Amino acid sequence: MNKISVLQVGNEDLSLTLHIPDFVDWNHVDDLKKATERSYDVCVLNRCVNEREARILLKKIRAYTMFVLDSVELNGWTKWIYESRIGKIYSLNELQEFMSDDIKLFFPSGYGEKFDALSLSISQSFGGSISWDGYNGVLLNGEYGDDFYQIAYWRMNVPLFNEQVIDFWLEYEKDPSVNIQLKFEQFQAGSVSTVQNRWVFSEEDLKSVISIENKKMDGPIFASLLAKGQGKLRITNLHDRHSRKSYGVFFPGGERYVTSKREELFMYFDPGDMKPPLNVYFSGWKKQESFEGYNMMKKMGAPFLLITDVRLTGGAFYLGDKEYESLVIDGIKKYLKLLKFDESQLILSGLSMGTFGSLYYGCTLRPHAFILGKPLGSLGDIAENERIKRPGVFPTSLDVLKKNTNNMDANAIKCINDRFWDKFDETDWSHSKFIMSYLIEDDYDPNTYKNVIGHIKNVGVEVIGKGIHGRHNDNTYAVVEWFRSQYNQILKEDFNRNGDSNANR
Question: What 3-state class would DSSP assign to 7?
């Protein structure tokens, strides 16, 4: 188990009173100048702090990881850092229970992955029809029998270690006449026949995230799907994530939203210093499931919101049905309201896939500014370019096209392009700024920058652009550096902040 680093601030070293697990690295300080680590996984506070100390803690402590003893008075800067870090008040006994039972869930890095449809094997005994739909899933149609039998299994196993908890979520659709179960078997490490754990989950269980906790030896998990009845069954993705139980998803405090079609969206909010603006960052395309941009956004010191899309292979560009898109809009508005900010105190940002999310939802939210790197607007063009300009480089673009139009022809390409640009054309951009760094030889969508300029109908809208030579996945370092510098500049000039240095005060 990875070491979990705890910073305890107070006159008395509580490790002399509490029982601390071996995997916890306990750091007791009274003078915060001696807190030498760049960041800590958990903070325990058992005295009040002044402004200087509160700002040091803001830099070193993640939100949702501060635990304040009930003997500490919450006022002044102690109350400020407690609210900024979204702390919890514990008695000494409650803190001991936390150390014994739950601190293991505050491991440093969140991790998740998915097993897509192409990693599935279908049972040879199934006599119905099988239709593969790229990474959108595999559709089965036929008879499955009167009792539960294995209909499919995932070829890759999931490692599971002693005392570890893993969450699973299955994306699927089916006819009411089909019944399914999800089955897991854990083998002993090094064995292909000795099963030490077995779990079977019903459809009722699958309405929620299911968790597996290993109290035995290390060993891989084999996952299979059982079915009975007859009709259609679509299997999309099986997601597995290192669990933090009730403390959050990926990060402590990470929030999970899910639609009636079992599609997920994740958000992580950090109040920062609780002063404007709210910086929203949409994650780019990536296969590993987690949040992106945390360290970069935290250094700015301002409140920020991370949003990530885990559908398809590495994300579905935040585009979905009305229910899915409402989750995004309502989530951002919720945190604006919590901070008592309005849209003039909102910045939407992202890189690559994240730029589409920013621009698309910006049409509804109309933020103060967009800060974008490698902007993408015409999803149909990206899919069309897969055939000639970059064959085999980004097949997810074809899945996005099929998912949203149920077709792959020229009309589908135009339809998904128009879905964004029609929305963009209907928006009043008179109060927004566009700050974009684009690749001159972009092989995904080379025209978004000039199209944004051409589609803005309002007079006097500020657009700042920087062209950098390269294809879409070239020269990312230069794009990100310019992205950061523009973020810091707008925070300084428009909100009287000091950008990255603000968190150091």
Answer: strand
